[in-house]
Design goal:
This protein has 2 domains: 330 residues, Outer membrane efflux proteins (OEP); 81 residues, no CATH class. It starts with a helix and ends with a helix. It has 10 helices and 6 strands; from the N terminus they run αααββαββααααββαα. The chain has a 4-stranded antiparallel sheet, with no helix packed on it. The radius of gyration is 45 Å and the shape is elongated. By secondary structure, it is an alpha+beta fold. Helix content is 64%, strand content 11%.
Length: 479
């Protein structure tokens, strides 16, 4: 006991220290994992858009309904079979028992002389009356035989409508993905501009302090102080505008991707600026031809709409005057006091019916409504063709406009690069003068403000360049 007491005394603090160390390590690791915000790459946001975007999900359901319409049109080739059944209970049936006296019954026959039986005066029941129950069953079958091609035309029509829905869905996916790429890239440049404006705001505040102090000492005029205040307010206003625009971009990105808690700091995306100039060396005519390629989803959808209009016109012509629909009708019925095959001697009582008929239905005249329907569908066909031509003209014009924007932005970026370089050299000169004692802080800050303004303008031109690039990529489908 005496020799073990020192051993426990030294081991207990060691164990306690190890436990506290492990607990602290676990707490630090848990804090680091819980406080680290999620980061979203552009590919992750694109995948979230394809999965969660409400607009796409709605169009997908429209496609599902169109495919069901195709199945309904094909089902019209099959017969329509309907069953009707009813069961009734009558407390007081309309037909009661029928009785006749034996004398009246015997008087109705011509008996030979000497053979006429003597009536007993009793009454004979001829019909016991209706039962309290009554069952009715009816089974009908209607099979179209000839419809002047309306059924095949309807199937083709709904198939084309489903094709239009699919093409519109594909085109909408491309459009939304392009919008997402543009907005994420815009958020990157806006965040950069915001950082530059934040540093600009600090310099403007420092410049205002220097100017105010110089004016208090009589070295500058009050007008110089007012100009410094205006400059500071302009920077603050620009910072608010950038914050507002950045928030609008994030609201749109949240709506596109379905990520409701997404913040600008959660975006992990750096644009590949070298790809933005890939269209500069392309021939404008070549880009127009790519935009008007027949395999584009938007143009295919318009062509499919033209086909839908033509099929609708054919369907209207098939439903014109004097073109009857012929169908086979089969009807099987039963009506009796008991269920079929349960009633005694049901066959002889003629409680069943069976009918086969061929029907014909057509419109002779309705005041010209069917002729108007044909003219209306013909007009829709022409409108669809005009819509296709209008879309082609719009695409060609959009390619030209976006290409001009791309070139203007690229030229402006070259000018801004040279301007930033020149102003940076002026900042270096002013800093050197301050270091050797021949310059003042006010001139240095003004040079830094001018250089930062040039950087901000360059970032804006980069944003214009990226916007034009994504628009051209969408129009031409060149990745």
């Amino acid at each position: 006991m005496i020799h073990q007491r020192p051993k426990n005394r030294y081991l207990r603090p060691v164990f306690l220290g190890l436990i506290l160390l492990m607990a602290g390590f676990c707490q630090l690791s848990a804090t680091s994992t819980t406080t680290q915000p999620p980061r979203y790459t552009l590919s992750q946001l694109r995948a979230s858009l394809l999965e969660r975007n409400l607009d796409l999900r709605k169009q997908q359901q429209e496609l599902v309904r169109s495919l069901l319409d195709v199945k309904d049109a094909r089902a019209a080739f099959w017969p329509v079979i309907e069953l009707q059944a009813s069961a009734s209970y009558m407390e007081n049936p309309p037909l009661g028992p029928i009785v006749m006296s034996s004398e009246d019954l015997l008087s109705g026959f011509d008996w030979p002389v000497g053979f006429q039986p003597q009536p007993t005066g009793d009454y004979i029941t001829l019909y016991e009356g209706m039962e309290n129950t009554l069952y009715d069953f009816g089974l009908t079958l209607q099979q179209p035989l000839f419809t002047w091609g309306k059924l095949p035309a309807a199937v083709k029509l709904y198939q084309q409508v489903a094709t239009v829905r699919q093409l519109q869905l594909d085109a909408r996916k491309d459009e939304l993905l392009t919008e997402l790429d543009t907005r994420v890239t815009a958020s990157h440049y806006l965040s950069t501009i915001r950082g530059l404006l934040a540093s600009q705001n600090e310099r403007a505040g420092r410049l205002l302090e220097i100017v105010t102090h110089a004016a208090d000492n009589g070295l500058l005029l009050a007008q110089d102080v007012s100009e410094a205040k205006v400059q500071t307010l302009n920077v603050e206003l620009a910072l608010l505008e950038v914050d507002s625009e950045l928030e609008r971009q994030m609201l749109a990105i949240r709506k596109l991707t379905g990520v409701g808690t997404l913040m600008a700091s959660d975006l992990q995306h750096t644009p590949e600026e070298r790809t933005f100039v890939s269209f500069l060396d392309r021939d404008p005519y070549e880009l127009e031809q790519l935009a008007l390629a027949p395999q584009k989803s938007s143009l295919q959808a318009m062509q499919a709409l033209e086909q839908v209009a033509r099929l609708a016109e054919n369907l209207a012509r098939a439903a014109s005057y004097g073109k009857p629909d012929i169908a086979l009708n089969v009807a099987l019925g039963y009506s009796g006091p008991r269920l079929p095959f349960v009633e005694t001697d049901w066959y002889r009582q003629d409680d069943y019916s069976f009918t086969i008929s061929i029907g014909l239905r057509t419109t002779i005249w309705d005041g010209g409504k069917k002729l108007n329907a044909i003219r209306r569908t013909a007009s829709s066909t022409l409108s669809a063709q005009l819509d296709t031509e209008q879309l082609q003209l719009t695409l060609a014009q959009a390619v030209r406009e976006e290409l001009l924007k791309l070139r203007m932005a690229w030229s402006s970026i070259g000018y801004q690069d040279l301007l930033v370089q020149t102003l940076q050299e002026r900042v270096d000169q002013q800093r050197l003068l301050v270091e050797i004692g021949y310059g003042d802080e006010q001139s240095l800050i003004q040079a830094q403000i001018a250089e930062t303004n040039a950087r901000i303008d360059r970032e804006k031109k980069k944003l214009e360049l990226a916007t034009a690039y994504f628009a051209l990529r969408f129009l031409t489908q060149v990745l």
